[in-house]
Amino acid sequence: MIRRKSFIGIFIAVLMLSISTTAFAKEKDEGSEYKNLASGLSYEISHAPESYIDSGNELTDGQYGENDFNNPSWQGHVRGGTRSVVFDLGKEKSIQKITANFLRDSKIAIFYPVAVSYYVSTDGEHWKNVSNLSSANALWGAGPGETDKLLWDGNVDGIPDESKNTTMAYARYVKVEFIPEMWAFIDEIEIWGYDEKVKGAKKVNPKEAEYLAPSKKTSNGIEDLVLLYNGQYPNGRGNWTKEKIMPYITYVGEDGEPQDWMYDGVLYLGIRSEQGRDLGTIVNPANKEDWQWYMDKTFAENGDLSQLNEATKEAAQKLKKKNKKTKVVLTVPYPSVAQSDFGDIDGDGVSENFDDVQVGEDVSYQNRKKAIDWYLRELFNKWNKENYSNLELSGIYWMNENVENDVSHEEEVIQYTSELVHSKDLKFYWIPNWYSNKSHAWEELGFDAAALQPNHFFYDNVDHRIPDGAHRAKQYGMGVEIEFDERLLSEPGNYLQKYLNYLNGGVDYGYMDNTFKAYYQGNDTILQAATSDDPEKRALYDMMYMFLKGIYTK
Predict the structure, then answer these.
(1) Cβ neighbours of residue 161 under 8 Å, at least 6 residues apart?
(2) What interhelical angle do 304-318 and 242-249 show, nearest 10?
(3) Which of 405, 433, 453, 534 has the fewest CB atoms below 10 angstroms from its CB?
(4) pTM: predicted TM-score of the whole model, two decimal places
(5) What domains does the chain contain, in order, with CATH numbers?
(6) How far apart are CA 91 and CA 172, in angstroms?
(7) Distance CA 250, CA 261 (A)
């Protein structure tokens, strides 16, 4: 009887599969043809191209410009903000793939776009983001011109917030967005699918993008994370005392006395070691001695953490919040593949080599993981031993602001670090720069909280970075970094307006409230402003306090 039931079950399953396959085939046979739905289609473009003016359907004429920027099939866009290209397909159709083809020719400042996003809509007003992309290759680089066709494929990538069975979006409108850094050259956009609704296609609901909100799950509740650099600096400026720290964790009056709480999280991070080697990037890489020096400095008796604890303890007494704890984020240095002589970690007498060319990709990967494992194990042991009365360890910060394209196992190293951090029930933080090629994939990399750097303060002619940065951060579900340094005080004519642009942007674009934010302030700009006798400089500190409290107005 059991065998008979099994046979009948198999027979029915095969029959149902046959019927469903036939039905699907019929569904496609009835006038359905897989094709480029954008072929020859007109479109609306937000900014007219500054080079090789669009003839009307240049992006859909099927003509590719190859690697030659002189080819008239290309159209060029220069800086100035996000570009959008909107297609009306005429009716709702089944959309399976979207591609946009870009040129890189760095010698003439043609770079891949910083970011590319694809959207679909049923009404042309309310949009659903189906993909955020960046080139797998460097945005710029030496060598001859090359192209990259950035692809969203519903069969492979799926649609965010939809079931795995939804492989196509059933929509009428498609929008392609891209952000030029210098020049961005685009020659063709393709939208592949079917004129009719076919199996796997679904009308997707529009979803309004949101910034990363502070919560226990994301940032451990931190909304405003201030960066305090505690590496090696001239004149001891990387050494944090209780007095220096007080204007950061509390809002102090002109008499220096705490009046209210200020930043609710502190990130300690170091750029250079005592020997001048780099703790955070791929060049001039630090070794084990440097990593150990930085850890010992941070945890030293009367060192940076000890002084933060004392400052919090004193502030808690003065502000009558006895059990107050400052939330702390500590940094893991970056294990650079340029380091071929890191030092012996496991006591076998052999220095660990991270150079993937010398030792191979797999050995390099294992050695890099070994270094991170050693460092975090030592860090957690020290933290537990010190048992600071007024500090709470919220998590670990990944120092490198980029995900290196040409480094083997780079993403796996980050994900491995994430696993170690999460094993201690802590959060993993990241603050990628404007050019980072993997900002959109921060969650896939294993981060719990990330804030995008607009990098507006450091460059001229990039006012678009505030609205575009806010837009990118929101689309990616990230927070935002507020950036300034000591030049705000020494050169207000050049930098005051940039500082205000960040604060005003918080009002205009909604990231002042309920958004995870990081604050880059050079070395000690906030301290200098808070203690300045110059009322104009002191006013900058007061503005920051109001911004943190959500009461700043333009």
Answers:
(1) 207
(2) 60
(3) 534
(4) 0.92
(5) 33-195 (2.60.120.260), 224-452 (no CATH)
(6) 5
(7) 4
Give tens-digit pLDDT for 51-69.
777 877 999 999 999 999 9
Please say whether the dihedral angle defined by the alpha carbons of residues 501, 506, 507 and 512, taken in this order, is positive or negative.
Answer: negative
Dist CA 409 CA 415 (whole Å): 10
Residue 473: its H or E element? helix 465-476
Is pLDDT of 331 > 70? yes
Question: Alpha-carbon distance 526 to 529, whole Å?
Answer: 5
Per-residue confidence band for 140, with pLDDT thresholds at 50, 70 and 90: confident
CB distance 404 to 360 below 8 Å? no
Separation CA 463–CA 80 (nearest Å) = 8
Q: ∠ CA 551-486-502 to the nearest 5 degrees?
A: 35
Residue 302's Cβ-count burial label (10 Å; 0-12, 13-18, 19+) is exposed
Q: Taking the CB of residue 229, how many other CB atoms lie within 10 A of it? A: 21
**Own/partner pairs for 536-542, CB < 8 Å, 24+ apart?**
536/492, 537/489, 538/254, 540/488, 540/489, 540/496, 540/499, 541/247
Tokens 């060049």 found at: 283
CB atoms within 10 A of CB 299: 20
pLDDT tens string 413-457: 999 999 999 999 999 999 999 999 899 999 999 999 999 999 999
Please say whether the dihedral angle defined by the alpha carbons of residues 487, 491, 494 and 499, taken in this order, is positive or negative: positive
